[in-house]
Amino acid sequence: MKPNIKIPDFSNTAIVDQVGVEERASRFTKRSIKNETKMNGLLLALNMIDLTTLEGKDTVGKVKQLCTKAVHLHEAYPGLPTVAAVCVYPSMVGVAKKALGDSGVKVASVSTAFPSGQAPTQVKIDDTKYAVENGADEIDMVISRGKFLQGEYNFVFDEIALIKETCGDARLKVILETGELGTYDRVRKASDIAMYAGADFIKTSTGKISPAATMPVTLVMLEAIRDFYYKTGKKIAMKPAGGISKAKLALHYLVMLNEVLGEDWMNNEWFRFGASSLANDLLMQIMKQKTGIYQSSNYFSID
């Protein structure tokens, strides 16, 4: 089912000013942030995290532990927000759903033969259907990068639209795997295809490929979201994932988000960080702001 929005001709090449994008992205890292604003930003970033475990060695116990952390980030600091979601493989969705209960933390599941996407479309549909039937609130799919790089844009569009239809009420995050796309022009084109095909989020990376999220790539995607909103009136969410492990960098991303898309996107409905290791650094910085001293990393669980 294709969305009720006029679809552009994706064969036209999107042109992105590489120098301009990189210069503008670097300027976001030079903004000064006052202490009160910094604390608010740290708490907001914490609430935007999708805590993730996507390993072949994942166990029921590991997923339950991650869910406990998602809801109780630091016992010595009552009143902390929860993270936004816990992201797991489809086989672990039921475990996460039960462990999180009525906490309000979403259950996200990767699908579509994550991370490669190298599977028949029907397999991808079945993968998604299994996750949704087991309680996934959100689906993180990967696009078929091989098809995209061959110029088969209609195939990529149709596959995203099919997965969106399979999601039902679950929100769909479309992973571009920008590290494999190679240029900003391709990142912009893939962003446009995903949004017009029905994505609720566009997401940079699986976290399995380097480079993963970068500020210039995220800027290109944020500007694509802005332009799509101006054309259609439809808001799309953003998720940079992979390589964001420090609180300072997360704050730079929030500055960029605010300046490109504005206050309406400054919440976890419209922006997420796919970076589990970020949570501990945010907690260390929050405790530093609260107590004036850094706690040892030994005080925080290793995901």
Set out the fold topology.
Layout: H1 18-28, H2 35-47, E1 50-52, H3 60-71, E2 85-88, H4 93-100, E3 106-110, H5 121-133, E4 138-142, H6 145-149, H7 153-167, E5 171-175, H8 178-181, H9 184-197, E6 201-203, H10 215-232, E7 237-239, H11 247-260, H12 276-291
Structural overview:
By secondary structure, the chain is α/β, with parallel strands linked by helices. The protein has a single domain, classed as TIM Barrel. It is built from 12 helices and 7 strands. Strands 1-2-3-4-5-6-7 form a 7-stranded parallel sheet. The longest helix has 18 residues, at 215-232. The relative contact order is 0.15. The mean pLDDT is 93.
Strand order in the largest sheet: 1-2-3-4-5-6-7
The fourth-level CATH homologous superfamily is Aldolase class I
Q: How many separate structural domains? A: 1
Using the coordinates above, name the CATH class: Alpha Beta
Low-confidence stretches: none
The helicity comes to 40-55%
Order of helices and strands: HHEHEHEHEHHEHHEHEHH
Structural class: alpha/beta
Shape: globular
CATH architecture: Alpha-Beta Barrel
Mean pLDDT: 93
Backbone CA Rg: 19 Å
Keywords for this structure?
about 10% strand; alpha/beta; 12 helices
